[in-house]
From TrEMBL:
Transmembrane parts of this sequence: none
Species this protein is from: Pterocles gutturalis (yellow-throated sandgrouse)
Protein name: Breast carcinoma-amplified sequence 3
A biological process term (GO) from this entry: response to starvation
Organism superkingdom: Eukaryota
Residue ranges of coiled coil: none
Pfam families found in the cross-reference section: BCAS3_WD40 (PF21034)
Any GO CC annotation of this UniProt entry: cytoplasm
Xref: InterPro entries: BCAS3-like, BCAS3_WD40
The BCAS3 WD40 domain, residue ranges: 30-167
PANTHER family: BCAS3 MICROTUBULE ASSOCIATED CELL MIGRATION FACTOR (PTHR13268:SF0), BREAST CARCINOMA AMPLIFIED SEQUENCE 3 (PTHR13268)
């Protein structure tokens, strides 16, 4: 049986086979700009029962693989079985950074306005949803449950990376 990392390598070889074969591609393939692995509370089956139904292979949560292309990005779920499933894809130009946002710690004083939309994905694209901000100055929040954009946050200066926590 393949190890977890061997499953990921096999998946990447299937996605971008010409990178490993050394032969010239017969057709134009997409260029991968960046790759990130994540463990996020998206994997928390107590918060996300639909996710549990899709990946009911046991207690171990799947690894999340984010792939940034020259024209967008994809998020894949890779369970222990190695059968990858695409969770999200956006194709609106280059993506500089993306993160899956952890669900906030809820207290009596605070409520989660996005609880029905979670898990959320923050994406810093070259052009924000408004189309009027300078390059990489906007973070769009997408619902991985519905696929819709739920919020856009504008900044005055370019964004180089995204960091997030439960607070």
């Amino acid at each position: 049986e393949q190890s977890y990392m061997e499953s990921v390598v096999t998946f990447l070889q299937d996605v971008v086979p010409q990178a490993y074969s050394g032969t010239p591609p017969t057709e134009e393939k997409e260029k991968i700009i960046w790759v990130r692995f994540e463990n996020a509370d998206l994997n928390d089956t107590s918060r996300n029962m639909e996710f549990h139904e899709i990946h009911s292979t046991g207690n171990e949560p799947p690894l999340l693989l984010m792939i940034g292309y020259s024209d967008g990005m994809q998020v894949w779920s890779i369970p222990i079985s190695g059968e990858a499933q695409e969770l999200f894809s956006v194709r609106h130009g280059p993506v500089r950074a993306a993160r899956i946002l952890p669900a906030p710690q809820i207290s009596a004083q605070k409520c989660d306005n996005f609880s029905e939309k979670r898990p959320l994905l923050g994406v810093c694209k070259s052009i924000g949803s408004s189309g009027t901000s300078p390059p990489y100055c906007c973070v769009d929040l997408y619902s991985l449950r519905t696929g819709e954009m739920v919020k856009s946050i504008q900044f005055k200066t370019p964004i180089y990376d995204l960091h997030c926590n439960k607070r």
